[in-house]
Amino acid sequence: MVSKSKWWFRILRAAALAALLFWTLAPVYIVLSNSFRRTLDIKKMPPELVFKPILLHFQRLLELDDFLKYFINSIVISLSVTIITLGLGTLAAYGMKLFKTRMGERLSNFLLVGKLVPAITILIPLYVMLNRIHLTGTYLGPILAHAAMGLPFITWLMTSFVWDIPVETLESACIEGCSRMRTFWHIVFPMLTPALASAAILIMQSSWNELLFSLQLTNINTYPLTVGIARYVGAISVDWGKCSAAATMSMVPIIAAGFFMQKYLVAGMTAGAVKG
Amino acid sequence: MRKSFCWSLEQGDLLPVILMAPAVLLVFCVLVVPLGFGLFLSFFDFGFGGFVPSRDFVGLKHYIAFFHDSTALRAVANTLAFSGLAILGDFILGTAAAVLIFQLSRRVAAIVRPLVTVPLLISPIVVGLIWRYMYDPRGLLYWLLGRVGITIDMFPGVTAASTALLSTVIAHWWQVVPFVVIVITAGLVSIPVELYEAAYVDGAGAFKSFWRITFPLLRDVYVVILLISGVDTIKVFDIVFALTGGGPNDSTVTMSIYAYSQGFSNSNLSYAMTISVVAMLVTFMVFGLPFIRHNRTRATR
Prior knowledge:
heterodimer, A: mainly alpha, MetI-like fold, 14 helices, 75% helix, 0% strand, globular, B: mainly alpha, 15 helices
């Protein structure tokens, strides 16, 4: 198609592409770069493209506002959620495969109804319940909430991948005397590696980025980054240097992970949409 | 004796059930039980001071109050407006961007595509923060708009009730359009090139072949995007929380925002629960029934 277009059409297309990239990347660039600018320079328009980077905002963030702790909390929460969700989701998906009928597939489609429940509808009663047993303020609240909100989709996703493994492969392993759990570990699990990578990046980013549950279920010792950031936006006059540095701390790791696992991210998202 | 690989109930084989039990248990305890408890709470006057079910039962009081609460009704209207605008833009911008990227040479597309997906990975609270900076009167956006003669009085962004909701929707587009691009691209890949070639031979232009070939063949993809991103827009919280907090003048209060502020700022947990139950019902009515029907047709396919 490319060669057939007229010259003006090609210029138009190049301009549209430039606009798309500018629209997507300019806001990210400006906040990233602001976290290294002097407070005075942040409001300077047009922004200077060449400037001497400073680390003052990060220093304030780590020393005065405990963001290193929030950063570690975010890692603890999102890694725990990823491990729990992938473990339980994969086992459940394999369990559904073992049903003789198509009942497993129906069950996993039913799970998607869980996506219809707004987080706020779960948060309020969950908060009351966890508060009653004195578990608010611990890591347990957000971990349980993120895992439970993510599990239906992850289980569904893993089921759709497990479903692609031919039953004959499993049965031949069975004939050779492999128990079904050994079949799982030695045959199914290795075949699922790409699917697990897709599920992992999806669930990890959703937990890393989640705000609402963490906002109420954690306390000053267990705040993840998102809550630390949310505490800034309530302020009337925003300290843009500090905010930008906080935003940078939150987005750089997950963007890097997403870049690294781009292929799996896209596979997971399109499996969730095109297949389903 | 060789056991059959698949489960049969008659043999009393419990392995599939054991495998599924932990996941089901977690979802049950953390989703289903709170949901039931929340529904229960919405019929009571619940406070932290102590709770006596027989004394605090109020029946439908909170639900009746909901329909007499102008802010609550405003929240429903705002949520639906946000959702409608958001989905409309997601479709138009997402399709345009996907078709644009799809026409690039493979090498350029390999560079462009990962760059375009960046906003997807960013936390919505950070997206809100980024756009709060963009909408700053002395920020990049107004500087750029100033170049083409648009002043802050002409588009007051998040500071005026008339444009605040649109401003939050723009931030949503910025984040979610890349998702639509990814999904539509996957759909575009599945369309055979021969169709376009035949259309070209028959003299159809680019727009005509889009309307007659691409669009109809992507119908299923659009339905899925509508359901997935539609459900997410009804639940919108973070972006609004960061950008406007519901203001100015309640012009951006969504159902999640209103439930949150009633529950945690006003300590009115029962009423907050009522609002969030209504939010769930709205989600269910607007997107749930088509969602389930779609799943069922797919399951039987």
